[in-house]
Model the fold of this input.
Amino acid sequence: MDAAAPKLVLAPIRGITDCIYRTALQQWFPGFDRAVSPFIQLRRGHSLRPGDVRQLAPENNRVLPVTPQVLTNHAETFTQGLRQLRDLGYAEANWNLGCPSPTVAGRGRGAGLLPHPDRIRAILDAVFSTSTVRLSVKLRLGRHDPSEATAVLAVLNRYPLSEVILHPRTADQLYDGELDIPRTREALSACRHPFVLSGGVSTMEGFTELSKQLPEVSAWMIGRGALSCPSLPARIKGKLSAENGTSREALRGFHDELFAGYSEWLSGPGHLLAKMTEHWVYLSTCFARPKHVFVRIRRSRDPERFRENVEWAFEQPMAPVMR
Done:
């Protein structure tokens, strides 16, 4: 890889970017340098859930390096969770201060902590006084007000974080609305840690434009853009062009590996079809008529019909970027 190529991080998307997905994506569409896992919701007085331990087991994460992400607003629970992650072999974790979901933020977790820099400082004081696990933070510009990040970054600058990942919207915007580029520039200037920009990259053209607006950014977190166009990271890295891509074949191989992986991972055809249909929300956008393809896939009532509909889907015209 060219030394000047941007560093790319797969974003955590709950229910989608699990270890099965991360492994298959990197094998068929290599381009990401590492990933952050969907958040683990730490529970006061409880160990990590068995499902979370299974997801993060080293043997299930050999292809793409992953940093576990944790969600909590309680210092003791935080340090307990970090100890358990260390015991699993992880030397670094990511703290979620960016989840915009009202059910999360409304309980003072994720982006719900952003209006309270004093609480963030108290939690970090406790964590860094006891934990040896390196820590990074993922946040937004604010929950309601994009100026909230200013006070939060002043707090984060006091600690030896490995990096700060910023989504340039408020929690109220969720994943829609304009990116606040001026506030992002201010955050870049204020941040003393390695900086990763998260959000807004859904096409090669969009990446090029954002790179021009924010030339200081050299590391990017990409989520839904890669889910909808798995070859996007390779295109950004300059490994794949529209002229030499074989994306139909790679997309089919990627899909079949997902299906095989979830067939072993999940119990029963109902769970399998529900999971694969969830992935087809994004995979269908690789085709010229995404709604038409998704409706056909969604009508699958059993694995045999699903396979028939997948065969039909891959005979349909591809979207221009995936040809």
The chain has two domains: 7-236, 247-322. Residues 235 and 241 are 6 Å apart (CA to CA).
